Amino acid sequence: MNLQTPTIKSIHSGEMPLGEYKLRGWVRTHRHSKSVSFIELTDGTSVKGLQLVLDHTVVNVSEIQADIQTGASLETEGRLVASPAKGQKYEFQVATLKVVGTADPASYPLQKKGHSLEFLREILHLRPRSNTIGAIARVRSHAAMAVHRFFQERGFYYITSPVITTSDCEGAGAMFRVTTLDLLNVPRREGKVNFEEDFFKGEASLTVSGQLEGEIYATALSKIYTFGPTFRAENSNTTRHLAEFWMIEPEAAFYELEDNMQLAWDFLVYLVKYVLDHCKEELEFFLGREWTDKSLIESLNKLAASSYEVMDYSEAIRILEKSPKRFDFPVSWGMDLQFEHERYLTDEHVKGPLFVVNYPKDIKAFYMRVNDDGKTVRAMDLLAPRIGEILGGSQREERHDVLLNRMQEMDLPEETYWWYLDLRRFGSVPHSGFGLGFERFLMYVTGMQNIRDVIPFPRFPGYAKF
Ligand code: ATP
Ligand code: MN
Hey, which of 245, 345, 434 would you mutate to test ligand 1's pocket, going by the most ligand atoms within 8 Å of its Cβ? Predict the structure, then answer.
């Protein structure tokens, strides 16, 4: 008879009637007595494994016992029954069991005891088998689905922006060069590298943002979003920065800053609710980790039920100046907010997420719409407790002459951005958008404190394994 192979998640959720099944997965723990053996089996779909019960009169355990080790893979047939044991609803009475692949306990690094996140970062190829990294991978997958659902339900089209680009999204960060030139024998002309001989007959890089390309499509399809990898060659060795991260960038024609804020807020609330709904078990697991803020789930529920607060940059500066707190970076109008300032505003002042808007133009990108005061631009950053900036966006400058002026002020070559200016020459419209760092969001919902733990394969200065 061909038995069904349910996931362990579907068993725990009560979807599977009691009866006979086949199960496949890996041993998490095992213990043996004279007459019976217990194995906790995991298939990576759930925080909880399933208890296999091996009655020695049914299964000849002595033959395979040496191979039943943490990390070994198994295939088993038997019967799902209600468990008489405390703390578990189900258990699996094994009829037949086969060890598919062994895992030598002398060399398999993931043993029963908990491992530190630092240690797990050294074994990226095995860490998804740990409960923590496995749970993050599942949350990440659900959250990605939520991103697409949110925008698709609202009529935004998914646009893939190029990974290799010849345009620099000014101000976003340092870029990784893409080249096929022979670095030991670089072609030169007039003392400079001759990129005419490079693959694209010019300089190319990995994208730091899909925004400018997104604007092209927003001024044609009205509402679009991108969701893809972005790259920053900045040497920031922090717990919040990666050299390769995923960004979601919606862009909408006829949206002004207020519409943009509403969209960003609705988006964040949607994502949070989606994760609360679909990843309950994972969130409860995170809550139990020693590094997790005990208000994690409570604060997510609070966010999902609240509306947003907005504060002018100038007001934020006044509050920071008046605060009794001593900051490492002194506060003055015109400076960029540092992490410590962001955290003071969110964690101590408003005690929740906060949009800061209307930043000084000198610390923001050339494409942001200039306010009537001539000094500030229609920028918005959404700051979240614990993690600081979670998304940043703006209303874009749609006036051709003002944009050209800004570009000249900032020494940006018209030859490079002629196409971007063209969008303001032909049917220009007010439009707005933002970028949400997917990993920053994941840190926020999981309570993880190092961004390197919420992406499967982190890249940062000095490190790019696999
Ligand atoms: P920060 O000040 O935190 O470095 P930023 O101002 O450089 O951020 P943007 O250029 O506006 O950020 O990028 C948009 C979003 O992408 C940010 O709001 C953040 O969520 C995320 N982000 C930016 N840089 C990184 C990075 N190096 N690693 C991971 N996420 C990032
Ligand atoms: Mn940055």
Answer: 245
Task: Kindly report the CATH class assigned to 127-172+208-453.
Answer: alpha beta
Going by C-alpha positions, the residue among 29, 234, 239 that lies closest to residue 118 is: 239
Instruction: Compute φ and ψ for 272, nearest 5 degrees.
Output: -65, -45
- Give the CATH fold of the 8-113 domain: OB fold (Dihydrolipoamide Acetyltransferase, E2P) (2.40.50)
3-state secondary structure of 148: helix
Closest residue CA from atom 27 of ligand 1:
241
Model pLDDT, residue 169: 57
Task: Using most ligand atoms within 8 A of CB, pick from 206, 242, 394, 440 the residue to mutate for ligand 1.
Answer: 440
Has residue 311 got a pLDDT over 60?
yes
Say what the pTM is.
0.95
pLDDT in tens, 264-275: 999 999 999 999
Q: Where are the domains of the chain?
A: 8-113, 127-172+208-453
Nearest atom within ligand 1 for CA of residue 236:
27
Dihedral of the alpha carbons of 426, 429, 430, 434, in degrees to the nearest 10: -80
Predicted confidence (pLDDT) at residue 167 exceeds the cutoff of 80: no
Alpha helix positions (H), 210-338: 211-221, 257-278, 280-287, 296-305, 313-322
- Kindly give the distance from the C-alpha atom of residue 107 to the centroid of ligand 1, in angstroms, as a whole number: 39
